[in-house]
Amino acid sequence: xxxxxxxxxxxxxxxxxxxxxxxxxxxxxxxxxxxxxxxxxxxxxxxxxxxxxxxxxxxxxxxxxxxxxxxxxxxxxxxxxxxxxxxxxxxxxxxxxxxxxxxxxxxxxxxxxxxxxxxxxxxxxxxx
Length: 128
Hints:
single chain
């Protein structure tokens, strides 16, 4: 659903007002480039290796059907699932870092809710 001209104009005015009042916050809120898969970087290497593993799993499944050997079929399905999982795994396996304050120290409210952290940030800004 597209915005009307009036709504678009009001949004642009709000963005300009935010940029005037708090330029550093406005810069952090600018949208970044969109990654290929829901915000994650997917490696071509992972896709190729995962596809090869999945094909090996499919081959094991077909062989287990040709030879009536059920454990080989179960193993083939597991290998196939492992291949699909590896192909869809993200490029970087780093854990996300905690948010840092302007001073560079980790936020003390890591366990608090999003709204509580936003309220704390608002209070700090009002105190400055």
